Each structure stands twice: as structure tokens, then as C-alpha cells.
Amino acid sequence: MTPDEDSTSAPTTLKLSVVRDVTIVATLVVLGLYAGAAFLIPLTMALLVNVLIIALSDRINALTPMPVWLANVAGVTVVLAGLFVIMYILGSQATQFARTISTYESQFDETVSRVTGFVGNDVTAFIRDNLVNIDMSYIARILIGSATSLLNQFFLISLYVAFLMAERLAFRKKLRLAAGDPKTGADFAAILDAITLSLQRYVGVKTLISLITAGISYSVFRLLGLEFAETWAVLTFALNFIPSIGSIIAVVFPSLIALVQFESIVPFLVIVLGCGTIQFVIGNFLDPALLGRSLNMSTFLVILALVFWTTIWGLIGAFLSVPLTVCILIVFSHIPALRPLAIMMSLDGRLGDETRPESAG
């Protein structure tokens, strides 16, 4: 083979080998994620919580004269206390809901009869045949089990976070030593910095939007006198972290409870039309726009990531779909062979590190 032939065939061989290697690695990674979900989900959530704590402690340290260790303690306290309050509300009210669920069984028949005039006899017959036979006691056991699982996960995540924060200062030093040479260590540090910055932007945007939406929804629930209003407000806050469909689901549950709880259909319409309109606008227009602008990630990729991570890790995967995909996009952007994939995953084809040469010049 002549040198010219060798030089012309090398790029093709390289591309085929990259495709082959990426396919094999991706298959093994997906299988590992699915098989190790019980171990990986709490660890992933702990890493995300750790990013939140670092962002908050850095902000506290920048705004106040307190020492670094005290800012870290404040960040840990605020974030973990907020998570505990959320899980406590869900856990305690889930238990209360499970205890009173028998009352909803009797009210459900009355509700079905009430809505007959609105939806027709055919739909009413379908509801009776498919929903009346639901074992509500089984649902109650699931709720109690979920509440216990939430608290168990919280303590495990807190344990992980404690050790991660304890090794925060030593981690970068260990990373430089493990890299072997300064350039490789700098590359690893750049990847971690990019991931941290993007996750902080994402969590900031989502938290602000979710707090506003949950606050408005809670006000509506309290004015209507909806039972378990705190639970539906917390679920509204949490479900808004699920792209697009989360905002829709956040309206379905309280509206159904309103339909069963109240004899009038007005509260149901208020929640569906009022909260539903707010959720629809935020979930389908404002949220994707701010999400794409802050992370430069394709909106189609957001939906694709939602389906993928939900398939792999269930409901928790839906919450973590965007942060995990952002990490993958950033890692791909720093690997030359995978950079084309990162460009396709981005919103406008521009990656975050492309502005560095211009600024340096």
C-alpha cells in the first residue's frame, strides 16, 4: 500500500473504529445504569445536591465575610433542611391520605353520577367499569411504602453528601495527582468546572420557576380549601423539574381531588383553567426557552432525554434527565472524537468552550 493510499484510508478507519467503540461503550453503560439503579440513583442525587450546596456556600462566602468552612456548613444546612421539609410533607401527608382513602371511595361514586350530564353515559360507563374496581387499599400501601422510602433515601443521600463535602478541598489536589501531568489535570478540571456551572444555571432557572408556580398554585389550593394543599404544592414544585409533561401532571392530581371533594364543579374548573393555563405557558414556552438559553441544549434532546432516563430509572430518571444529559453533552464537547455529537446535541451548534479563543485574542 502506498503512503497516499494509507493516508486517505486512515480517516475512514478512524471514524469506523470510533463508531464501533462508542456503540459498545454506550451499550455497556446503558446496561450498567439499568442494573445498578438502586445504587446509582441515590449517588447521583447526592452529587446533584452537592453541586447545589457548593453553589450556595460559594455565594454565601462571596456576600459575607464568614470563613469557608462556616459557609459550607450554612449551605449544607439550608439545602438539606429544604429537602427534609419537602420529603416530610410528602411522607406525612401521604400517610394521612392513605388513612382517609376509604372516604374517597364512597365519594367517587357520587362524583361519577354528578359528571354524567357533562360527559355522557358512555364515558360514565367507561369510568365505572375501569376505575371503580381499583383496589384503593393497594394504593394506600404503595403511598405508605413510598413515604418510608423517601425518608430512607434522604438519610442515605445526606450521608453521601457529608462525605463529599468533607473531601471537597482535597478532591482537586487528588485529581491533579491522578492525572499525571498538568495539562491532563487542567483538562479534567475544565470539564468539572463546565459541568458545575451548567448544573448551577439549570437548577437556578428551574428552582425559580418551580417556586413561583408552586406558590401561585398553593394560593389557589388554599383559597379553594383543597385537602392536602401542601402536598399538591410540593408536587407542583417537584414535577416542574420534569420537562414539558411535568407541568401537566401537576394539574391533573389536584383537579381530580377537587372533583371528588367538592359537590360543585367550580373548584375543578378553577384549577384546570387557572393553574392549568399557568402551567401550560410555563411548561411549554417559558421553561424550554430559558432552559435552552441557559444550557444551550436542543429542546428535542430534552424530550428525548426525558424518555430515555425515565425508561432506565423510572420517575427519578425523569427528574434527573436534564442534569444527566447536560453532563454527557459537556464531556462529549471535550473529547475530539465525540465533539460532533455534542454539536448535534446543542441548541445552536455552538459549544461553551468556543468563546475562549476569541476572548483570549
Automatic annotation (TrEMBL):
GO terms for biological process: transmembrane transport. The chain crosses the membrane at residues 24-56, 68-90, 138-166, 208-226, 232-253, 265-286, 298-331. It is found in: Membrane. Keywords: Membrane, Transmembrane, Transmembrane helix. The keyword Transmembrane applies. It comes from the Bacteria. Belongs to the autoinducer-2 exporter (AI-2E) (TC 2.A.86) family. Its main location: membrane. This is Transporter. It is a multi-pass membrane protein. One of its GO terms (cellular component) is membrane.
